[in-house]
Amino acid sequence: MKGIRMARRLVSMIAAASMLAFLLPFAASAESSSAQGADCQEFDTTGFSICGEFLQFWNANGGIPVFGYPLSDAHQETNPDTGQPLLVQYFERQRFELHPENQGTVFAVLFGRLGAQILTQEGRDWWSFPKADPSADNYFAVTGHAIAPMFWNYWSSHGIDLGDSSITFRESLMLFGYPLSEPMMELNPDGDTVLTQWFERAVFEYHPDNPADSQVLLRRVGAEILTPPVQSQVIATGLTSPRGLTVTADGTVYVAEAGTAGPNCVDIGEGHDAVHVCAGATGAITKVANGVQTQFVTGLPSVDFGEDPTGPHDVVVGDNGQIYAVIGLGSKPDNRTTVGVPLVGELAKSFGTIVAVNSDGTWHSIADASEWQNTDPSGTGIDSNPFSLVATESGFVVSDAGGNNLIAVHPGTGAEDTTYETLGVFPNRMVTPPPFLGMPPGVQIPMQAVPTGVVQGPDGAYYVGELTGFPFSLGMARVWRVAGPGEQTVYADGFTNILGVAFDSHGNMYVLEMTKGGLLAADPSNPASATGALIKVSPDGHKTTVMTTGLIAPTGIAIGPDDSIYISNFGVMPGMGQVIKVNP
Prior knowledge:
By secondary structure, this protein is mainly beta. The chain has three domains: 4-14 and 229-269 and 276-582, TolB, C-terminal domain (Neuraminidase, 6 Propeller), CATH 2.120.10; 29-112, no CATH class; 118-226, no CATH class. Helix content is 11%, strand content 37%. It contains eight helices and 39 strands. Strands 14, 15, 16, 17 and 18 form a five-stranded antiparallel β-sheet that branches. A four-stranded antiparallel β-sheet has the order 3-4-5-6. The relative contact order is 0.12. Residues 1-35 have low confidence and may be disordered.
């Protein structure tokens, strides 16, 4: 499947991946004010005080505009470099650290590298970010980045007071650090998509509609570090490539497992077109009820066309209690016969179909979701990978990540009676290619939409998320609203690599990003590089990042009757898959 195939780079991640954690609750704050002296200033806005050296430093180097209000009292934390206790205090935009070894010097109070720390927590390796032209103004060879013109004046006009006659380069560098990225459009924690540049100790945002003196704002990185992680609970483990899932009225969870292809393999094509194809009956559906996990459907088809196993991609429960699943394909529909049948016999004909599951775990195909792609409804070439499924009164709505469209499938008594309708076609966009392609400046390449998760919203329309195809550009994934055939509009944008969309009972939409830092930045040796994100979009369009920590290559989302959120996690790591329950 276009886009999802890049996830193969993540499969070799080891099980011992450490989940990045936020800082522990504060301790020893009662001792802090006496340790710094009695000179304190209390802030009613947050209820915290700044005292002693921290207060002197805060006043001398920018105060509220640069550091923001205090978000904690001064308290002891362990210095990760020395293992010794360290007095720290958090502010909206920074963390102060008191270093007694530097007492009596201008370096007694130092900063945390919060910009770099947040990137690490999000699994984003800034060394892999696109670099600047070395001839650019304000270029720093140390990191390979240049400070953008709209940010340079702010960066160079603020600094730590080191006793220089005016604000100097070294004073600005001490305050903000080196640039870690080029400017890029990003979704900030307040739900706005703004031009953003990352620095070691800060994150700059450009708001051109603000008054001239407040067009450059500093993100509240201190508040982000302090935000406690959302509580989550693992309710299923050991899953093999979990994908879509559903929750019934009584809280029972069903999750599709795409499997590991199978032992039956063949090589097709020659040269650059050669593909090693494997298939088998390793797909499954797991049920979680009353705390008990059971793999109650097995033997579903799974195939790997040389990239990434494709199998059961989604599961739904109809109003009558009937369970249905959609099986992926990731190829031309005709390959089921020419390639699949010699490998796995009649099982191959179930790829790309919708299947009905009986209470005893047996199943049978009821409609061919891939057949319609032979008509090339998107006009971009025949390809099919049914991904997400919605049950309707007359059949089903299916997103096809290979065909780049949304279709309605109305099963009949047989294949000849099944009817189809194209509800939406999601076009390519021209984007800037990644630097490693070595293309000339100004050249653009097409990026496919790759529709993945689909859900019926409270207004009856269908909402479809985009994974996007290569080069998986950051912030370019969208959620479409499809009200009927040809009635499609972009409902929300600014996302990266969407795998699922869901609504709660209050009309809030939740968008699941598979990799917050983008698929190209995912490193199989570093699980944190596959950190995903759960983003809440309120009915008025405001976005809030609900969760990142603990989400590793998440691949499916559903919301239960009590508004608890269920997420398929470790979705591209066979045998490591989870379902987690989140209470936002």
